[in-house]
Amino acid sequence: MTQCFKQRPIDDQRLNQNSTPVADCECKEVRLYGSKTLVTDVPILTCSGLWRIYQREAEDIIAPDGILIVDPVERNRAINAAYARLWLHDSRFQWAGLAAFASKQVGCGLLHAAHSVARIRDERETRQRLRDSRREFGLLRLDRMAEQAEALRDYKEADSRNPVPSVDLHLTGEDLSVVQQQFRYVQEMMALGNTTLFLDIFPLHVFYAKRGLKELKTCLKARVGIFGHPEFPMIWPVGQEKLQFGLQQDEILKAFDAIEAGDVALSVEYLAEHEQRNILQPTIYEDSHLAALLQGNHASFVTGFPSGVAQAIELTLTSQCQRLDDGRTIGFGNNPLANLSDVEQRMVFVLRAAERFNDLLRDDNRSALEQSIREIATGGAPP
């Protein structure tokens, strides 16, 4: 096992018992029913209190000192590492091991979007510099030929790196072109799903690891009530209107029941159902704009048109982004009409990846998988 959770005094304290000795509690005089009475405030360890503590532990990972990591790639790296540490702490948390790879793959998509936005901008800026130079000095000024040749060379290099065709539209007054806005929107939505899922599922693992299955069953229904407390604000980026925080879902207890029974593969299936149907579907995949962009990306990748724009929908079970041909890359499929936003189609892909991960853990690939998870746990970023 590896250090994964913060150690706290409450970890060994009994539920619904005082968390501070009565002798150490403050005693004060208050007026009660018309007479002065001595009252001692005794803090009690409740289910809600435990959830607040474990929720804050997740928040501290993505929002150190209460400030959300702004860069979605850096935030994703922190999430990847936390999932990886969960599996290294307890390999029964097999969903977390798979999630370390899946979240890493989200990071690959975030990088692809960010790089695409930057390369489109570079091409536009170098083209504009070339035009400005020619407009100001003309084409035949000997004293400007070297400068213009360099500007032309810069433009050609930037143009060769630009992943989109020349039909991209840049409207007056807009900072980003239409295609850049599409890449940015996908990036924002993927980051939203990545962050929301982590804030939902990491505290569940902390609670189970610290308090056990019996208390998880006792306290799960209390989790929904910790949201909205004025003294204990929470980070929930998706918003209550789109996804209510902390709903008790059947798949959660079924998953941890399976872990307790030693059936880790079944636990992964239940948590995958919870992850995809209860969290990610309402958070991002029901967004029609995102759904259209994802479907267009997949069709473009499968058909190869336009070339160089799209990214494969796949999961590679290493710490890197590049696909492998040794069985560690699981693809979404080659049907150009396939729809990642359709939860039924997506579940087939997710469960196929879960099955492959389970198989690899049980053959001579386990050491390679563990090494990759260790790399992710140390904050290793995809190239």
Task: Tag the structure with descriptive keywords.
383 residues; mainly alpha; two-stranded antiparallel ribbon; globular; 57% helix; single chain; 5% strand
Folded structure, characterized:
The protein has 383 residues and is mainly alpha-helical. 57% of the residues lie in helices and 5% in strands. The chain has helices spanning 47-62, 72-89, 94-137, 145-161, 178-219, 250-261, 264-285, 288-303, 343-361, 366-377; strands spanning 27-32, 35-40, 314-316, 329-331. The protein has a two-stranded antiparallel ribbon with strand order 1-2. It has a two-stranded antiparallel sheet with strand order 3-4. The longest helix has 44 residues, at 94-137. The two termini are 28 Å apart. The mean pLDDT is 86.
**What's the Cα radius of gyration?**
26 Å
Structural class: mainly alpha
Mean pLDDT score: 86
- Quickly count the domains: 1
Mass-distribution shape: globular
End-to-end separation in angstroms reads: 28 Å
Q: Which series of helices and strands comes N to C? A: EEHHHHHHHHEEHH
Q: Count the E strands.
A: 4
Widest sheet: strand order? 1-2
Q: How many DSSP helices?
A: 10
Helix content: 55-70%
Quick structural overview:
By secondary structure, this protein is mostly helical.
Describe how the helices and strands are arranged.
Layout: E1 27-32, E2 35-40, H1 47-62, H2 72-89, H3 94-137, H4 145-161, H5 178-219, H6 250-261, H7 264-285, H8 288-303, E3 314-316, E4 329-331, H9 343-361, H10 366-377
Helix pairs in contact: 1-5, 2-3, 2-5, 2-10, 3-4, 3-5, 5-6, 5-7, 6-7, 7-9
